[in-house]
Amino acid sequence: KILDEFIKLAKNKEKYTKFYQEFGKPIKEGLYQDFTNRDILIDLVRFKTTNSDNGLISFKEYVKNMNKDQDTIYYITGTDKKTLKYSPLLEVYKKKGIEVCLFEDEIDDIVFTGVREYKKYKLKSVNHSDAADSLDGDEKKSEDKKQSGKIKKFIKNLKNLLDNNVKDIKVSSRLTDSPCCLVADQNDPTAQMQQMMEAMGQKSNEKIKPIMEINPKHKIIKKLIKLGKGKVFTDSIRLLYDQTLIIEGLKPDNPLDFAKRLNEVLNKSL
Q1: DSSP labels for 168-233?
Q2: pLDDT attached to residue 47
């Protein structure tokens, strides 16, 4: 009976938006826990997207707006509402005109990890390494073949420097404007999910490292490839890594070292 009333209320967009702003979280908790009513509850969920400005839309509306050849619903999770829409992880989707759902609540990572599809469409998190695979096509295969020895050597140097911080380093197919980004491996929890689990007292015994993706076409990466070694090279790589943490809403591993490196690089550039 309650769900029937919610369905009726949802027909009035203005009233339902006000209702959802107050009671959206319990509805999403139900989506995570109540398998029997999942099909009803997922149609009651509302969210912002990269195209919806400040308004909230439903999955039904998202699907209606999808590109003709699109078979996946893409979403990004994060708790910093002001910066989520401008995440480097979204660059390739903006380039290809693909709308991405912005899941901004701290519980969204857990909720939508358990929701695999909406009707016939798969749900995929752009926070994970495999999200852009279906967008690559022949373009990515061509780029892989063209990878120069200099880039391969550069990645090897990065791995030596960041071995304790990242699981792997790859050439990115999702970045167009940023030098690098961090993503979770396909089956690993995101950084936000790990923070939440720790807050709930479920800290993992083993550190789950992210994957670092680099954009070899970016001017900073080009200069670093040319530089190849030395203190400025090392400091710059560490700064880029710390920068990606900050963009993800995380703190650098050592804020004092981060400040020192930043001052050193600034001093040399002035």
Answers
A1: EEEE-SS-SS-SEEEEB-TTSPPHHHHHHHHHTT---SS--PPEEEE-TTSHHHHHHHHH-SSHHH
A2: 95
Q: Nearest Cα to 192, choosing from 97, 80, 29? A: 80
Task: Let me know: does 126 contact 190? Beta carbons within 8 Å.
Answer: no
Secondary element (H or E) of residue 124 = strand 121-125
- Structure confidence at residue 66 (pLDDT): 93
Lookup: tokens for 79: 């708790």
Judge contact between 180 and 215, C-beta under 8 A: yes
Residue closest to 74 by CA, chosen among 121, 125, 114, 108:
125
pLDDT mean by block of 10 residues, the chain; 270 residues: 94 95 93 93 95 88 92 90 87 94 91 91 93 66 65 93 93 93 90 78 78 95 91 91 88 90 85
pTM: 0.88
CB 105 within 8 A of CB 51: no
Q: Are the C-beta atoms of residues 81 and 104 closer than 8 Å to each other?
A: yes
Separation CA 1–CA 15 (nearest Å): 19
Type of residue numbered 94: K
Q: Return the pLDDT at 130.
A: 87
Does residue 57 contact residue 107 with C-beta atoms inside 8 Å?
no
